[in-house]
Amino acid sequence: MQTETKTRMDQLTSPAGHPVTILRFEGDIASTSKEAVLGIYQSLPKATAKIILLDFTKVDYINSSGIALVIQMLIEAANGGQKVYAYGLSPHFIKVFTMVGITKYAGLFPDQNAAMAAL
Amino acid sequence: MIMHKSANVEVRLPSRLGYEKVAMSTAASVAKLMGFREDRIEDLKTAVAEACINAIEHGNRLNEGLSVGVMLCAGEDSLEVKVIDDGKGLKGLPPRPDIDKKILGEEDPRGMGMFLIQALVDEAEWVAGGNGKSSYVRLVIRLDSPTE
């Protein structure tokens, strides 16, 4: 009943010349998304993937279990010296992410262009 | 669907994760008919989702032999949603989640469902069933809420 999370990965260089790893999520982000969210993130080489950008543009549904997975990613990123940013959240989920405090640890942008311009 | 002064809608969900979406859609449809703004409808959907997930996971312990009841009562200026499971109910409300503690590993990353419910609706009440089951959470959103 939950739409499986699909994740694609892209490597881009920001206008400032920094390598940015974009994780593009699609579908639902819920308790069944561990491999698609954390698993994919954990497969990134920590030595070189220092800037992670999460694309939520095609995410239909996030529940608190999915938010917990994002927080787990932020924990590992903090320990690994990585910076995490995100874009593509609906106004509602920007509010939810702000409520739970994720915005203290992951900057949010309205779209990819805004994110890349700032990185 | 014609909206009279009060209208009741009931849904029964299997205790399987994912089926909270049925309750979300139903609550959203009723709220839309009542004239709630889109942002309040999104708040309600998330609150109903979290309430159903708690009922499925914790109340009914993912036992597919049990169902979760969702009862919506649309009044003149408020919508009440009750989510009923066969669990014993809560022993107490968990503390407010602390993102800093979670990042430091001092708090479980999970456990934000009840906090979101309370933050997103005008009233949230958890009631333990008297006979050790039929516990429910009651959510209310009001049309004349300051955010409406």
Give a verbal description of the structure:
- The complex is a heterodimer of chains A (119) and B (148).
- Chain A is globular.
- Helix content of chain A is 35%, strand content 34%.
- By secondary structure, chain A is of the alpha/beta class.
- The model of chain A has no long low-confidence stretch (mean pLDDT 94).
- Chain A has a five-stranded mixed β-sheet.
- Chain A has one domain (6-118): STAS domain (Transcription Regulator spoIIAA, 2-Layer Sandwich).
- Chain A has helices at residues 34-42, 64-79, 91-100, 112-118, and strands spanning 6-13, 19-29, 51-62, 83-87, 106-109.
- Helices cover 34% and strands 25% of the residues of chain B.
- Chain B is built from four helices and five strands; from the N terminus they run βααββααββ.
- In chain B, a hairpin with a 7-residue loop joins β4 and β5 (135-142).
- The longest helix of chain B has 22 residues, at 38-59.
- The model of chain B has no long low-confidence stretch (mean pLDDT 91).
How is the secondary structure organized here?
The complex is a heterodimer of chains A (119) and B (148).
Chain A: E1 6-13, E2 19-29, H1 34-42, E3 51-62, H2 64-79, E4 83-87, H3 91-100, E5 106-109, H4 112-118
Helix pairs in contact in A: 1-2
Chain B: E1 7-14, H1 20-34, H2 38-59, E2 67-74, E3 78-85, H3 99-103, H4 113-120, E4 123-127, E5 135-142
Antiparallel strand pairs in B: 1-2, 2-3, 3-5, 4-5
